[in-house]
Design brief:
mainly alpha; globular
Length: 138
């Protein structure tokens, strides 16, 4: 009887672990939002395109800190700001006639930001494209 009870407990434990693990997938991959927010990439592209048409300075668009307001309407609480930035950077390159690339998704946003976290040698937002190339080439 004890053996049967232990076996039932073990089966229940395995099922619980399997259920928990099936919901945990922190990998960055292509198609991450295919089911939860299938239009995420198109929404980001349209917003980048609108910004680009208003201001032809692509570097300014690349420096934007995006809020998820335009994706939030279509997919509340689904698309991370980190993924929005990745999509937006790719879209800006495409709009400036550069070669696009497939962007994997599934990045998680941080829950804490500290001013001391980023490196102190980041270039200021006022740098020209030539200054940025010089800084990143070194």
């Amino acid at each position: 009887m004890a053996h049967k009870k232990m076996r039932s407990s073990l089966v229940a434990l395995v099922l619980v672990v399997a259920l928990v693990m099936s919901g945990v997938d922190a990998t960055v991959r292509y198609g991450f939002y295919d089911h939860s927010c299938p239009n995420a990439k198109q929404i980001v592209f349209k917003e980048i395109q609108k910004a680009y048409e208003k201001n032809t300075v692509a570097l300014g668009i690349l420096r934007l800190i995006f809020h998820d307001c335009f994706v939030r309407e279509a997919c509340p609480g689904v698309v991370s700001c980190a993924d929005i930035l990745a999509f937006a950077s790719r879209d800006t390159v495409i709009l400036t006639k550069g070669k696009g690339w497939e962007v994997p998704a599934g990045r998680m946003d941080g829950s804490v930001s500290n001013v001391s976290d980023p490196p102190l040698n980041l270039p200021p937002a006022t740098f020209t494209s030539q200054e940025l190339v010089s800084v990143f080439a070194s």
